[in-house]
Amino acid sequence: MAMITQTFTDAPAPFDDPNADIIVRSSENVDFRTSKVLLALASPFFKEMFEVPQPAAATDGEEPPDTRNGIPVISMYDDRNRVCSKDVLEYILNSFYPAHVQLKKQPALSPKLFNSIVDVTARYRLIPCIRSAIRDPYLLQVRPFMLFAHACHYDFAEEIVSTAEETLRFRTEHFPLDDGLKLISGYQYQMLIDCHRRCGKISAGIARGSDQGWIASNAMLPQNHAPCCRDYRFGVYDWASRLDGSPPPPSWWVECMDKIAQELQPRPHASTISIHVRGMHKSLATASACTICCPFVDHFKGNFVAVLQQKIEAICHQIIKETAFV
């Protein structure tokens, strides 16, 4: 019976260095040439491995099975765990490789690739790589609950805040049933919901003019005038006196801000504002046709919305940062 000869291929640069002192092999037999020093710095598992005395090389001229061209080989898989593909291994090594030798940026992670990375890095105690994966910009938008659960599981304070902020894109009643949530307790999940509600309440209040001083000092509000203004004695912006003593803004401005507040209550995220403002064509049509209000409409859609988004981001960030999830 003929023996099956395995073939091995080299990974692309920068993992093809002929001066490497260790080879890390993927499940597809792709060899990544790297450095023991880098692996030891990234993982106590490898640090302890390299501290163990290695057996002497064979003297009969045959190369030991766990070496290639005289360089030791570490196979990052076994018969039960074959999840360490070349894509997984390339991401892991890139996460702690010196930036000046990396030839390309990290790819956007899919949930499947993320789970494989977490599995491998947890087994080999490559904790910095897990933190890098949790910060993936694409997953932060599409799977923030999965990332939030892993951040809580590893007690990554900074990542807990950033992932919790991204969950504000969702209504609480639309929170997805993500498998990653198995990693957190019911208390942590309930704290996330409570934090969401507090952010929504405060964000909506800001849009409705609860913080008069901030609006007066950070935005140029248009003056009310006929026909763009109605009597707002019971309106949300009918303040007895603004800081500069001027009357409330015109009707269209109040109506737009009230609609933004309604959207922010269930989804207190800065993106909610920009998405909703793009759909305000009918509300702003009359004001855009007014020679007095037209400049303020442009200001509202541009400068003021940007300042409002920054305000919402800052207040929600502070609320989440002060919440004890772990």
Describe the model.
By secondary structure, the chain is mostly helical. It has 2 domains: 8-52 and 62-134, 2-Layer Sandwich (Potassium Channel Kv1.1, Chain A), CATH 3.30.710.10; 194-321, no CATH class. 49% of the residues lie in helices and 6% in strands. It contains 14 helices and 5 strands. It has helices at 36-42, 44-51, 86-96, 111-123, 127-134, 137-142, 144-153, 157-166, 186-207, 212-218, 251-264, 270-277, 281-289, 294-321; strands at 9-10, 22-25, 30-34, 67-68, 71-75. The chain has a 5-stranded mixed beta sheet with strand order 1-3-2-5-4. A hairpin with a 2-residue loop joins strand 4 (67-68) and strand 5 (71-75). The model has no long low-confidence stretch (mean pLDDT 82).
Give the CA-based shape: elongated
The stretches of 5 or more residues where confidence is low (pLDDT under 50) are none
Main beta sheet strand tally, sense and closure: 5 strands, mixed
- Spatially, the strands of the biggest sheet line up as 1-3-2-5-4
* Proportion of residues in extended strands: 5-15%
Quickly count the helices.
14
Radius of gyration using CA atoms only? 28 Å
What is the CA-CA span between the terminal residues?
A: 59 Å
Estimate nothing, just give the exact number of structural domains.
Answer: 2
The residue-averaged pLDDT reads 82
Percentage of residues in helical conformation: 40-55%
Secondary structure tally: strands:
5
List the helices and strands in order: EEEHHEEHHHHHHHHHHHH
Task: Tell me which oligomeric state these chains represent.
Answer: single chain
Category by helix and strand content: mainly alpha
Domain BTB: 20-105
Organism: Favolaschia claudopus
Protein name: BTB domain-containing protein
